[in-house]
Amino acid sequence: MKRGTINMNKAGLIDKIQVIGEQITKKEAEAQLKRVLDAIKEGLKEDGKVQLTGELTFEVVETKARSGEINGVASETPAGHKGKAKVADKFTKEIVGE
C-alpha cells in the first residue's frame, strides 16, 4: 500500500469501478457510484445511520454548542449535526494485510 500519495478522488473511484466492472463504460460506472451515494444519503436522511456490517458505517451525529479561543480571538460554534464515517477493523485488515 502506498502511503503519502494523493488520495483517490471521485474520478479515480469511477475509473476503478470501471476496471473492476470490466465491460462497463465510464458513464455506467459513474451511474453506479451515484446510485450507491444516493442510497447512502437517503438512508442517512431517513434513519441517521447506514451500516454495512464488516465494512463501513456512516452516521449523522449531533454536535454540542461550544465556545473557545483561537489565536486569541473568541470563537463560538453553534450546536448542529455532522457526518461521521467509521471503517471496520475487518475492512482495514483487508486493505493493509495485517
The number of distinct β-strands equals 5
* Count of alpha/pi helices: 3
Percent helix: 40-55%
Distance between the termini: 11 Å
Q: List unreliable stretches of 5+ residues.
A: none
Characterize the main sheet: 3 strands, antiparallel
The share of residues in extended strands comes to: 25-35%
What structural category characterises the helix and strand content?
Answer: alpha+beta
Gyration radius from CA atoms, angstroms? 18 Å
Question: How do you describe this structure in short?
Answer:
Helix content is 42%, strand content 31%. With 98 residues, it is of the alpha+beta class. The N and C termini lie close together (11 Å).
3D structure, described in words:
The protein is of the alpha+beta class. It is 42% helix and 31% strand. It contains three helices and five strands, in the order H-H-E-E-E-E-E-H. It has helices at residues 10-20, 26-47, 89-96; strands at 49-52, 56-63, 66-70, 73-77, 80-87. The strands form two sheets. Strands 1-2-5 form a three-stranded antiparallel beta sheet. Strands 3-4 form a two-stranded antiparallel sheet. Helix 1 (10-20) packs across helix 2. The chain is elongated. The model has no long low-confidence stretch (mean pLDDT 89).
